[in-house]
Design a protein that fits this description.
With 684 residues, the chain is α+β, with helices and mostly antiparallel strands. It has twelve helices and 20 strands. The strands form six sheets. It has a six-stranded antiparallel β-sheet with strand order 11-12-14-13-20-19. A five-stranded antiparallel β-sheet has the order 5-6-1-2-10. A three-stranded mixed β-sheet has the order 4-3-7, with no helix packed on it. A hairpin with a 4-residue loop joins strand 15 (460-465) and strand 16.
Length: 684
């Protein structure tokens, strides 16, 4: 690990501070102080999950920014620093230096030479001298990602996100399956009908993010008293990118500045991702430690001393008015997430989403599928049953080992209408929008009208940008994905006959850049971009469905004249080839928050009739599959078989495209905390 003489000189200053460890919760034990390590946040035993009333205050936000600025100055660079609360409210964005001299390139290539043609890859802004940059959008996305992927049981950074969203897990290791959260980057999009947007002051979340979730190192969660209270994101190097290899350790300037900003708000050491394994592989929290910093964050000048020559707070269209705000208290009505209070899910320690008036946003309700529709009682039973499974399940990505899985569960009807959303205590926020994406994806792909809906969507636009101009260089006809799928499956009526029940695991198999997943020598799945065009910024149909909406919002945030903010609804946005107009032509909610391509959903049937789907997202993808599949199965048992999983003969695992069987669900072995049951999904 790199260490300089001036680091050695101030290391000792950290020890007295590090030894003062706040009590996080009943029974919490402090981590032994380590030289050069911020140990201000202790290990939390889990006995206080969701009960802390901590939040980020204006003073906290000022300190976080000041610490980041000090590190940026020590490194001789300018940075844009964003701070958000746990539900994604932007509390401040601070930009150092002059934005007119900066550009931000979206790329998978760290040197800026983007090898991929399409999607967001290679987009570079500013494109005109009068435009605002997208450094603030990148910083916000990183901050939200740090907050959304973390909980009191796990602390994940954007470097972790980079590790788990690429075509191989681990990145750089050929012939390995894709990352477990492959595709999560296109969630919590600004066009989602579930996420909220800035209304003048921090309010109920979850809030949207301008670029989806970020996989660019430089975003971390912020903790107080063992509780995640927000996130910080930094953009300084001009690249919005990923780390293509986990085989080395980088000194990333964005990551170093962001880590400095977390000092005294850092993740409990025992909860960091590098204490968590997935498929036997240790996750990577950061490549930079406090001992690698160029400045002592504890000695950072007070925020009040920062002059205009250093930088300034900035407004961000659709996100912030340029004033520092207090964050909301998670778990209380003002955050948009609160305890159910046994109103709908008695005895299950459930949490629900609420609006500004503390009213439930998504209470159980009946579906819209006519005579066969899910009833309100059936929806409630599915949600209660899934909560029961989650509360028994052992989490994959949560400390301490043996903790309950924390998840969000969404139920929709066959048209994607939201029929109910419920959460378990301390479920990570990213899973809120993702669980709905998963439910809608399973319902959509299993329907008999998916092909016709796709054919009705406008072409996806791909942009080319320079310092002087922005233009559309390519249009993608979305129905081409239907054609590719039909050829791949040798089924001329695929997505038009409703004969196959698809889960997110099955659809995800079809949306990988290799089929079978991870086998480098094979071609791509029909819903993916081919090699040379695929990247985490260009995934295929998943992105193309929402591409125009994503671009419209990015251009709006960047200040492009005449481009309004995107409305709710990710599918159906028209973007003129000369960018002179935008509009939304497709109504309905079928894909209103986009598609998702990693596991955790099942369609719901009444006999052979599709009537909806359930999606789950939280503490492990196999756990997500199990909670969805077993939750629905058990609900069907309770309801005497009135509803259930798809008949076995309709499930996607009957298909053998290219001689390789599609998957339906995959449940963990010995999954329950309170028993030794195994193969719990088999034979059902």
């Amino acid at each position: 690990m790199r260490q300089t003489s001036h680091i050695r000189a101030w290391r000792s200053l950290l020890l007295p501070f590090s030894a003062v460890v706040l009590a996080a919760c009943s029974g919490g034990s402090p981590t032994t102080p380590t030289t050069g390590t911020d140990t201000s946040n202790p290990t939390c035993t889990g006995t206080c999950l969701g009960t802390s009333l901590s939040n980020l205050t204006v003073a906290d936000v000022q300190r976080v920014i000041a610490q980041g600025v000090a590190e940026a100055q020590a490194r001789g660079t300018n940075a844009t620093i964003a701070v958000v609360d746990r539900v994604g409210n932007v509390l401040a964005v601070y930009r150092m230096g002059d934005a007119s001299s900066r550009s931000v390139t979206v790329t998978t290539s760290p040197d800026g030479s983007a090898p991929i043609a399409g999607g967001l890859e290679g987009i570079r802004l500013p494109v005109q001298a009068a435009m605002v940059n997208i450094d603030q959008a990148a910083a916000i996305a990183k901050a939200v990602t740090g907050a959304y992927l973390s909980s009191e049981g796990n602390a994940f950074s954007t470097r972790v996100a980079s590790q788990i969203v690429q075509e191989h897990f681990n990145p750089g290791e050929d012939f390995q399956p894709a990352g477990p959260l492959f595709g999560v980057q296109f969630s919590s999009l600004a066009c989602s009908d579930l996420v909220r947007s800035f209304t003048g002051t921090p309010g109920p979340g979850p809030q949207r993010t301008p670029l989806g979730l970020s996989a660019d190192p430089g975003g971390f969660p912020l903790y107080k008293n063992g509780t995640v209270v927000g996130g910080v994101g930094v953009l300084a190097d001009g690249f919005y990118t990923i780390d293509k290899s986990i085989l080395d350790r980088d000194i990333d300037v964005d990551e170093a500045i962001a880590l400095a900003a977390t000092f005294s708000y850092s993740a409990p050491v025992d909860r960091r991702a590098d204490r968590i394994t997935v498929d036997g592989k240790v996750l990577r929290f950061t490549d930079v430690e406090f001992a690698d910093l160029n400045a002592n964050p504890q000695a950072a000048p007070d925020f009040s001393t920062l002059t205009a020559a250093v930088g300034a707070l900035i407004p961000v269209p659709g996100y912030s008015d340029g004033v520092i705000r207090d964050g909301t208290v998670f778990g209380q009505p003002g955050s948009g997430v609160r305890a159910d209070g046994d109103q709908n899910y008695p005895g299950r320690d459930a949490f629900v989403l609420v609006d500004e008036t503390n009213n439930l946003r998504y209470p159980p309700r009946a579906g819209t599928d006519g005579a066969s529709a899910l009833t309100e009682s059936e929806v409630r039973t599915v949600l209660q049953s899934a909560l029961d499974v989650a509360n028994r399940a052992r989490a994959q990505i949560r400390r301490p080992v043996g903790s309950q899985a924390r998840v969000t569960i969404s139920v929709v009807d066959s048209q994607g209408v939201i029929l109910g959303v419920a959460r378990t205590r301390d479920a990570p926020l990213f899973g809120t929008d993702v669980s709905l994406q998963k439910a809608r994806t399973a319902a959509f792909m299993s329907s008999s009208t998916a092909a016709s809906f796709i054919a009705s969507l406008p072409d996806a636009r791909y942009l080319s940008t320079t310092d002087a101009a922005v233009s559309v260089v390519r249009s993608i006809q979305l129905s081409s994905y239907v054609d590719q799928l039909r050829t791949f499956l040798n089924s001329p009526t695929a997505l038009a006959d409703g004969q196959i029940a698809y889960t997110d695991r099955a659809y995800g198999n079809l949306a990988r850049p290799f089929y079978p997943d991870g086998i480098n020598d094979e071609n791509q799945g029909p819903m993916s971009k081919p090699r040379g065009e695929w990247s985490p910024f260009s995934t295929g149909m998943q992105l193309d469905v929402a591409m125009n909406a994503v671009l419209q919002h990015v251009l709006f945030v960047a200040g492009v004249p005449g481009i309004p903010d995107v409305a709710q609804g990710c599918a159906g946005v028209q973007l003129a080839t000369d960018l002179s107009s935008v509009g939304q032509t497709i109504t309905g909610v079928r894909l209103a928050n986009g598609l998702q391509i990693f596991p955790g959903s099942v369609p719901i049937y009444r006999g052979n009739t599709l009537i909806g789907a359930v999606g789950v997202s939280g503490d492990g993808i196999d756990q997500d599959d199990m909670v969805a599949f077993m939750g629905l199965h058990n609900a069907g048992q309770t309801l005497s078989g009135a509803i259930n999983n798809a008949p076995a003969e309709m499930r996607s695992d009957n298909l053998l495209p290219q001689g390789v069987r599609l998957r339906y669900v995959q449940c963990p072995q010995a999954p329950f905390i309170d028993g030794t049951d195994d193969n719990v999904c088999g034979g059902k």
